[in-house]
Write a structure and sequence with these properties.
Distance between the termini: 99 Å
Number of strands: 7
Structural class: alpha/beta
Shape: elongated
Length: about 130
């Protein structure tokens, strides 16, 4: 008597694949750098009677070397108005705040064109200061 051999089927472990895919997605989300501006070195100007600034989607920083950064990405002053306008989009007037973080030793000839570019883009400039104690 001849017996037929049964073929053993070994389906792939789909549950383990889902776990691996989830772990990979989680890894890349954690490792992604979004608006990481920790490498930008700036010191705020000290002033009396400062107020708390509103939340903002747009931040312009000027570091100690007078380099301009828009949301953590280096940018030229010529392109600033256009890029700020893109970030602001069609936000209502109360949500068009642009935080301006300027190093305390920056000259007026550097930050005045930046303030003008933000105004041209329709943003409300809020200068970030440090409370003087």
């Amino acid at each position: 008597m001849k017996f037929k051999r049964r073929k053993l089927e070994c389906p792939p472990p789909y549950v383990a694949m889902a776990d691996i895919a989830f772990n990979l997605v989680l890894f890349f989300v954690i490792m992604a750098k979004t608006q990481d501006d920790s490498q930008i070195q700036w010191e705020a100007v000290k002033a009396k009677d400062t107020q708390q600034a509103k939340n903002s989607q747009v931040t312009v920083k000027v570091d100690r070397n007078s380099k301009v950064y828009l949301n953590g990405q280096e940018i030229g002053v010529r392109d600033l108005a256009e890029q700020v306008a893109i970030f602001l989009g069609n936000n209502p007037p109360e949500n068009r705040t642009v935080l301006l973080k300027i190093h305390k030793d920056t000259l007026a000839s550097t930050f005045e064109p930046i303030m003008e570019a933000v105004s041209q883009a329709g943003g409300d400039v809020v200068h970030v200061l440090e409370e003087e104690r």
